[in-house]
Design a protein that fits this description.
This protein is α+β, with helices and mostly antiparallel strands. The protein is built from twelve helices and ten strands. The strands form two sheets. Strands 1-2-9-4-7-10 form a six-stranded antiparallel beta sheet, with helices on one face.
Length: 287
């Protein structure tokens, strides 16, 4: 017998992103739904087993997709679809139906569209967190609408960051998004003992791919950018304060004064102390 959990979201007052219904099902062999069209976006994530999705593409042709455990599929508004559980190993899936002003943009960020409706995770650990958010919503239908919407946003975050298309999908637009996130992380954490892995992790990317797109976009490696940013902040402190060179080094993430002075000289070609003297730095000099 097929097992199903199904719930309707109790509120439609969320404009940017709102839920409509959600659920879970362990299907009977060859169980099917459709052909049918939805009014909103509907995402299924396959927890186990396998099945087939038949979905219209942008030209109106019906395309067949095999969907296995760990993959998912997006149904788009007004798109005619049918999905069928395998006869031997029928799928078990969770689903969320959602819509709103931000949803189309979000799904595009993940690289899904009428011609590419299949979700495949590039980052399995983030995909596992996404699955947990879906099951949390399914199993906590008694929570308040605000509570469930909060978990919908967490799901969306994991959905986008785990998607295959973070590598190849959205070209310069998506790259700009990640570079902006990376620079924001550096601006907020440059004084701490952060690494390139930490910066890449803040974007949900591995170090190798992150380094590649960062260099292609900025012309610098992430490490070069981080050092340059720290040294720019150090130069500001040398000019505007009377802090010691050691204290300034510590303030920009270099607890070892020798390491700080060496890094500063590599950028400015002179020592921090000489730079301060040459640029009229220090509060006492400005009085």
């Amino acid at each position: 017998m097929s097992e199903v959990i199904f719930s309707v979201f109790p509120s439609e007052n969320f404009i940017d992103m709102g839920l409509y219904q959600f659920g879970w099902e362990h299907c009977d062999p060859s169980h099917s739904f459709g052909p049918a069209a939805r009014n909103h976006y509907l995402f299924h994530y396959c927890l186990s087993g396998t099945g087939v999705l038949l979905a219209q593409n942008s030209r109106g042709d019906s395309i067949s997709y095999q969907v296995r455990s760990g993959e998912g599929f997006m149904l788009f508004p007004h798109q005619i679809c049918t999905y069928i559980a395998d006869n031997e190993i029928p799928w078990e899936y969770a689903w969320l139906e959602f819509d709103g002003l931000r949803v189309k943009e979000t799904i595009e960020l993940a690289g899904l569209n009428l011609d590419q409706p299949i979700y495949k995770a590039r980052y399995k650990d983030i995909a596992s967190e996404m699955k947990d958010e879906m099951l949390y919503i399914v199993n906590h239908k008694e929570e308040s609408p605000f509570h469930l919407i909060g978990h919908l946003y967490l799901f969306i975050d994991k959905f986008v960051r785990s998607a295959t298309s973070t590598q190849v999908g959205q070209g310069n637009r998506l790259r700009d998004f990640y570079i902006k996130e990376a620079i924001s992380f550096i601006e907020q954490n440059f004084q701490n003992n952060i690494s390139v892995e930490d910066v890449a992790g803040s974007c949900g990317l591995n170090r190798s791919y992150f380094g590649k797109i960062f260099h292609e976009t900025t012309g610098k490696s992430p490490q070069e950018f981080l050092i340059s940013y720290r040294m720019t902040k150090a130069a500001e402190l040398l000019k505007l304060t009377d802090l010691s060179v050691a204290d300034i080094g510590n303030a920009v993430g270099y607890p070892n004064q020798l390491h700080f002075s060496r890094a500063f000289k590599n950028v400015y070609k002179i020592s921090p102390r000489q730079w301060r003297n040459d640029n009229g730095g220090g509060l006492q000099r400005s009085r």
